[in-house]
Amino acid sequence: MLQRIKKSGSYKSTSGGTQIYVPLNYATASASGWFSGADTLSTVDSENITSAAYDWTNLYAGVTISEEDELKNSGDAAQLNLLKSKMQIAEKTIADSLGTGLYSDGSNAESIVGLRDIVAVDQTVGGIDQSTYSWWQGQVDSTTSTNTLSAMNAVYQNCTVDSEHPDYIVASRAVYNTYYDLLTPVQRFVDESIAKGGFESLKQLEDDHSEITHWAA
Fold first, then answer.
1. Regarding beta strands 124-125 and 169-170, do their DSSP bridges make them parallel or antiparallel, or are they unpaired?
2. Phi (first) and psi of residue 164, to 5 degrees
3. How many CB atoms lie within 10 A of CB 166?
4. 54: exposed, middle or buried (C-beta count within 10 Å: 0-12, 13-18, 19+)?
5. Rounded CA gap, 142 and 151, in Å?
6. CB 41 within 8 A of CB 31
7. Contact at 8 Å (CB) between 135 and 26?
8. Which residues, including other chains, have CB under 8 Å from residue 75's CB and lie 6 or more apart?
9. pLDDT tens for the 217 residues of the chain, in order
10. 185 near 171, Cβ under 8 Å?
């Protein structure tokens, strides 16, 4: 998931503040409709904009070089190579921790808000209570016991608003395997860049071969 976010450029920078605010448009305007000529138009205001507020989080990985390592790597070139290797390890460690954080459930107050917290129905995410505001709840199917394309498509449609729809779906290994079996007659292995990250992806195709969704496990 981290690889996908970095590749898509869907992350945004912020200019500071005590918290990170993300604007949300969660409803349509109540004053709208057809009119003709000099009809009186409604100017009734309605609350349809708010923002989610997230606390800042910090992530680090230590880089240490012992005196013994310095002695074993005497010379400027050797020391630079040692430092470069240590920095690469730190970068991979941070990426791994960040990737884990993207799936967190909110139990660690110092971690970033993860998917298992965001797609819940009874959590407070970004300062907004999902139990109070249903539009902030995840779309959850708690009744299906046997995975089918129909059940998956129903959740997909519930997550679609106008022309905005999911373009990336992540799953556990078990769920991915059931999806794999469902697509056996028409499965395609795609996206070499994801494969390089150690992951496999599948695309579900319509009869006209248009892409519906992109799964990764």
1. unpaired
2. -90, 125
3. 13
4. middle
5. 11
6. yes
7. yes
8. none
9. 888 888 887 777 888 889 999 999 888 888 888 999 999 998 888 888 899 999 999 999 998 888 888 777 777 778 788 888 999 999 999 999 999 999 999 889 899 999 999 999 999 999 999 999 999 999 999 898 888 989 999 999 999 988 888 888 888 888 889 888 888 776 565 666 655 556 666 655 544 444 445 555 5
10. no
Q: Which helix (H) or strand (E) holds 101?
A: helix 76-101
Sequence-ordered list of residues with C-beta below 8 angstroms from that of 86, at least 6 positions apart, any chain = 63, 64, 65
Helix and strand numbers, DSSP H then E, in the chain: 7, 7
CA distance readout (Å), 66 to 73, 86, 216: 11, 12, 41
- Which residues, in sequence order, are bridge partners of residue 52? 22
- The strand pair at 201-205 and 49-54 is best described as unpaired
Q: Tokens 């056996």 — which residue? A: 184
Rounded CA gap, 65 and 71, in Å? 10
The CA-based dihedral angle spanning residues 4, 7, 10, 15, taken in that order and rounded to the nearest 10 degrees? 120
Q: Which of 109, 136, 95, 134 is nearest to 54 (CA)?
A: 109
